[in-house]
Design brief:
Blueprint: E1 2-3, H1 4-18, E2 30-36, E3 47-51, E4 60-65, E5 68-74, E6 78-79, E7 82-83, E8 86-92, H2 100-112, H3 136-151, H4 157-160, H5 167-174, E9 177-178, E10 187-192
Parallel strand pairs: 1-9, 2-8
Antiparallel strand pairs: 3-8, 4-5, 5-10, 6-7
Helix pairs in contact: 2-3
C-alpha cells in the first residue's frame, strides 16, 4: 500500500532542506490530507492550505461590526506533543494526474502561502490582494523559479519518484493508495453585545487557500 501522506512529508522535508525560501518550514508541524475532487476533470483546484491560526497569530480573533463583537475561535491541534500549524489538502485523483513539474508547482504554491515566520498564519502578499499579491502571474512565475532551483539542487530521487506516476499508475505499482482525510478543525463563533438580528457574513482569513 502506498501511504501518500508519508511520502509527501518526506518530499516536503527534502524541499525545505534544499530551497532557501522554505528553510524555515518544519514538515512535522504540517498535516497532509487528501480530499475527493468532485469531478475527474484535469482543471480545477489541485490543493488547498488550511492555516491553524488567524492573521493575528492566535487561535481566536475578534471583529467588531457596529454594536456587535464577533469572536471566532479554533482549538489547537496536536499530534502527540507536536503542535500542528498547517493542513495541506490534495484533491485526488486530480493532483496526482498532473505532470511531474505541475505537481511540484502545486506543492511549492501551497508552501509559499505559509507565513515567513512559520507560525500558523498565511503569508500576506499585499494589503488588498492578500494571498497572491498584485499579480497571480508574477506569483506563479516566482514559484516556477524556485521549482527549477530545487530541480537543479540534486533533489532526492527516491522522495520525488512518486510524482512521476499518475493515480492509476500508483495503484498499479502499489496495489492501493492510502488517501487519509483529515477533517477541518471546528471553528466556533460567539456573538457579544448583540442587538440586531441580521448576521453579517464572517470575513474570515482562515479559509482554505488554493
Amino acid at each position: 500500500m502506498f501511504d501518500f501522506a508519508r511520502h509527501m512529508h518526506r518530499l516536503i522535508e527534502d524541499i525545505a532542506q534544499k530551497v532557501p525560501l522554505f528553510s524555515h518550514i518544519e514538515s512535522r508541524r504540517i498535516l497532509v490530507s487528501c480530499a475527493d475532487a468532485r469531478s475527474q476533470e484535469e482543471y480545477g483546484t489541485w490543493a488547498q492550505i488550511y492555516p491553524m491560526k488567524y492573521e493575528n497569530g492566535h487561535y481566536s480573533i475578534r471583529e467588531r461590526q457596529g454594536s456587535k463583537i464577533y469572536l471566532f475561535k479554533t482549538d489547537r491541534l496536536k499530534m502527540g506533543r507536536t503542535e500542528i500549524l498547517y493542513i495541506i489538502y490534495f484533491l485526488m485523483p486530480r493532483f496526482q494526474n498532473l505532470s511531474y513539474f505541475q505537481k511540484l508547482e502545486t506543492i511549492f504554491h501551497e508552501l509559499y502561502h505559509m507565513s515567513s515566520e512559520f507560525d500558523g498564519k498565511l503569508r500576506v502578499m499585499h494589503p488588498r490582494f492578500i494571498f497572491h499579491g498584485l499579480s497571480i502571474k508574477e506569483y506563479d512565475r516566482n514559484i516556477r523559479y524556485w521549482v527549477r532551483y530545487y530541480l537543479n539542487s540534486k533533489p532526492s530521487f527516491f522522495r520525488n519518484k512518486f510524482l512521476e506516476y499518475s493515480f492509476r499508475e500508483l495503484e498499479s505499482q502499489f496495489g492501493k493508495v492510502d488517501l487519509a482525510y483529515i477533517p477541518e478543525p471546528k471553528e466556533t463563533l460567539r456573538v457579544m453585545m448583540s442587538h440586531r438580528k441580521k448576521r453579517p457574513r464572517p470575513a474570515k482569513n482562515k479559509l482554505k487557500v488554493p
